[in-house]
Structure formats: C-alpha cells, structure tokens
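tmp note - Molybdenum cofactor guanylyltransferase
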Amino acid sequence: MMKPLGVILAGGQATRMGGGDKGLLHLGGISLLDRVIARLEPQVSRLALNANGDPDRFDAFGLPVLPDSLPDFPGPLAGVLAGLDWAAEQGATHIVSAAADTPFFPTDLAERLMRAADKANTPIALAATHEDGRMWRHPTFGLWPVSLRYDLRKALKGGLRKVVLWTDAHGAASAGFEDDAFFNINTRDDLIRAEGMLK
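out:
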C-alpha cells in the first residue's frame, strides 16, 4: 500500500478545557498542533486538518482545513468523513487520522496500522493499548478506507455517534501500542502532566 494521506482531528469543542482549540495550546513552548504535525507528516503523503469555525486561525500551519460536512458536531467520525471526502478528491485510497490533543503518539503509527489491517484482511485498523488488564482502543487514531465513505455518511446521518459501533460492523483490526502512547490533553492538569512527560 502506498503512503496514506493524514488527517489531524481538531473538530471537537474542548468543553473540558473551557472551549477553544486545544491544538493551539503550548507544551514546552511549542503548540500541540505543531507537535502532532511533526509526528504525522513524515508518515503520510499529504496532511490536512479537520476543524470547524473560521479556518483563518490555522493559516500559520499551511494545511488544508476541512470542516465537518454534517451539522451539530457529531463527533470524531464526522472528521474522519471530511478526511475521506478530501482524500477521494486527491485520488487516495486511505487516510490515517490522529487527534490534535495527543502530542506523544508513535512515529510509526501509520505503518503499524497498515500492517494490522493487512494481516487481519480488514479495511479499518484502530490503535489500541493494554491498560489495567484490558485492551483500550483509541478510535481517533485509525486507518480508514476511502471506499467506505458513503457507508459512513449514511451511518452518521442515521444518528450513529459511537465510533466503535461502526468500526466493529466492518471488522476493524487493532494495532497494539505501548501504554501512554496516546496520552491526550483534556484538562489543565493533563497539560501539567504532559510538561513532566517532556522532561
């Protein structure tokens, strides 16, 4: 498989942070979004940002900004759909998604997702970690095929919001990663903890 396209999911409302763009918060003097771009860009052929509202606030990053095509913030799958529609315009077959508030995700994310999907012969793969004796999937970090975008649009219009309900219906594979690989920043305390992780 050729390198997929990459889509950074930043379309959420950041309610636990009091609103605004978490990706524009700074960690060690660098924005979370810059950190995510630095990790994902080498893994993909092109990169875009899924975000809603005025796209001009992201001008400095030089990326295409893809808004949700569905109203009322239906969740991360709407960002995935926006990415799949963009990828279809580019003639690509897959995208890899990453969340804008997760600054330490693996630099071999795309490769391991593709390998997991290929091994399981499934169209979708999600990142997963083992914590507290069970497997946790991280559905904002996934490999998604452009061929399923019509199915996804139909599911979202039908009211589906839970990512794993849709991915399980398509037999999604899981790609295992190390604990804490997908530590994400939801609160000010998380930001303080991330500063400690940097050191």
